[in-house]
Amino acid sequence: MDPISAFLEDNKIPLGRWGKQLFNWLTDSFDWFFDGIASGIEAILKAMIDLMLLPPPIVIVGLIAALAWWLSRSWKIPAIAVVCLAFVINQGLWKETVETLALVVGAASASMLIGVPVGIVAAHNDWLFRILRPILDLMQTLPTFVYLIPALILFGLGLAPGLVTTVIFSIAAPIRLTHLGITSVPKQLIEAGQAFGATKWQLLKKVELPAAMPTIMAGLTQCIMLSLSMVVIAALIGANGLGKPVVRALNTVNIPMGIEAGLAIVAVAIMLDRICRIQEPGNGGQSK
C-alpha cells in the first residue's frame, strides 16, 4: 500500500463511533418521545387496516372503483382497478394488500402535509431553497437501506419505522414539485392579483395554488409511487404488507410465493398509477 493510502487508513475518521454515540444519546434522552410517535403511528395505521378489513373485500373494491370513476368520469380506470384488485383477492393476498395500501396512504398523506407547505415557503424564499436543495439531493441519492438502521434504532420494529423511512424517501418529490409549481406561475397573473389589491395570502390561495395545482398533483403521484416502491424494504424492519411474503420467499427460496406476491405488487402499482395519472398536468382531469 502506498504511503498516502496507509496514512489515510491509519487515521480513519470515527464516523461509526460518533453515530453510535449520537443514537445512544437520542434513545437515552428522548426514548419517551420516539416511543410516543411510534405508538401513535401504529395506532392510526392499525385502525385504518382494521377499518378496511371490516367489510367484505368486494365493498372496498367497489369504493375504490367508484373513486376512480369520480376522478376520471370514464369506465376504463375503474375497470383496471377492479381487475387488479380481483387478481389480488384471487391470489389470497387481500390482507397484505390492505396493509400495503394503508402504509402507502399514510406515508403519502404525511409527505404531502409536510412537503407542500415547505415547498410553498421555499418558493417564496430563495435562501431556504438553496439550503434545502443539497439536502433533497442527498435524500434522493442515498440508498434506501441507509434509512433503515436509524429508524429501527429510534422506533423499533413494526409499522412505525416503515412509515418513517417511507416518508423520508418520498418527501423530496412534493417539496420539489410544489416549489416548481409556485415558481412557474406566470408573473402576469401575480401582477394582476396585486393590481386588484390582493394580499399575499389571497394571492397564494386564489392565484398561485390554482395555477400550480397540476404540478402539485404530479408530486402526489410521484409520492405515492415512491411510497409503494418502499413496501418490500419496509418489510425488512417489521412492516406488514405485500413486502412480507416477498422477503419470506427470498429467505426460503419459495418461487411460487415470490411470483404471487411480486405480481400482486405490480397489480397494485398499476392501479395506483392509473388513478394518480388522472390529475397529472396535460390530462385535463381525464385518464390518458
Key descriptive features of the protein:
288 residues; mainly alpha
Q: How would you describe what is shown here?
A:
With 288 residues, the chain is mostly helical. The chain is 81% helix and 0% strand. It is built from 14 helices and no strands. α2 crosses α8 and α5 crosses α9. The termini are far apart. The C terminus is likely disordered.
Provide the structure class: mainly alpha
- Beta strand count: 0
Low-confidence stretches: 284-288
Q: Which geometry do the CA atoms define?
A: globular
| Largest β sheet strand count, sense and barrel closure | none
| Radius of gyration based on Cα positions | 22 Å
Q: Average pLDDT value? A: 84
Strand content: under 5%
N- to C-terminal separation?
59 Å
Q: Which series of helices and strands comes N to C?
A: HHHHHHHHHHHHHH
Number of helices: 14
Q: In which range does the helix fraction lie?
A: over 70%
A few lines on this structure:
The protein has 288 residues and is mainly α. It has 14 helices and no strands.
Write the layout of secondary structure elements.
Elements (H helix, E strand, L loop, with lengths): L2 H8 L4 H39 L3 H16 L3 H15 L3 H31 L1 H16 L6 H8 L3 H12 L1 H12 L3 H9 L4 H30 L1 H5 L7 H10 L2 H23 L11
